[in-house]
């Protein structure tokens, strides 16, 4: 294959990576932006979404598309309920202290991971793609499902943008982010907003894992790499900056796909790590973050 078509193929793979990474990183960024805490268990919510999707899609008998659509609805809701209850029952009790939250979410990481290991097992499983077709370019054929992942992720991101910027719920979230004390004075139930935001972040991670599950294998350790990549994206984009997270996800996803295709996945991860180091040295607040005065 010539260089041009090969670069196009690598770019498409990078867009798939960026689409899924955008959802996961946006969830992590949203939690930090509003709650000002770091959710170390974010990757396990990602993994839990894929595992539940596998259970739902393999339980429902019929066309794979019906099982996938049901999983796309049920799995994020289930993960969101778990995250919401965790926030209300644990994080709320420690007043969302940043240091204590890190310790608590590390504990959650191991609890979720080991629970899935016991119930799901150590073996990797596969989810059947909801449909099979190829887009025939002049130089090669490409999976129609992978292209649909890019489209579905874009639609989900637009929906999140609309909720945050155009609805009353988004206004309440932004008010809580800017000044939680004043929000309480105005009668906003800050505790419930925190729980909803924490659940929303987990649900975005779960949605990303469900979209990628028919392409990758589902297993109990699959949340580790997305957690690392999401942290990289949030650091590069700027802590709490949604625009920065999306731009950084596109940059990291595209570079990861292209470098992995031309060279190796290890070199792609080295590039991401180097980029984080450069950002921390020359612009510690991130590319789109605000410098603290």
Would you summarize the structure shown here?
The protein is mostly helical and 293 residues long. The chain contains eleven helices and two strands, in the order H-H-H-H-E-E-H-H-H-H-H-H-H.
What does the model show?
There is one protein chain. This protein has 293 residues and is mainly α. The protein has a single domain, classed as ABC transporter involved in vitamin B12 uptake, BtuC. Helix content is 74%, strand content 2%. A two-stranded antiparallel ribbon has the order 1-2. A hairpin with a 4-residue loop joins strand 1 (134-136) and strand 2. Helix 1 (3-35) crosses helix 9 and helix 2 (42-59) crosses helix 8. The radius of gyration is 19 Å and the shape is globular. The model has no long low-confidence stretch (mean pLDDT 90).
Q: What is the number of beta strands?
A: 2
**N-C termini distance:** 53 Å
Per DSSP, the total helix count is 11
Rounded radius of gyration (Å): 19 Å
Q: What oligomeric state do the depicted chains represent?
A: single chain
Q: Please indicate the percent range of residues in DSSP E strands (runs of 2 or more).
A: under 5%
CATH fold label: ABC transporter involved in vitamin B12 uptake, BtuC
Q: What's the domain count?
A: 1
Instruction: Please list the strands of the largest sheet in the order they lie side by side.
Output: 1-2
Q: Which structural category do the helix and sheet elements fall into?
A: mainly alpha
- CATH class categorisation: Mainly Alpha
Net shape: globular
> Main beta sheet, described?
2 strands, antiparallel
| Annotated CATH architecture | Orthogonal Bundle
The SSE string, one letter per element, is: HHHHEEHHHHHHH
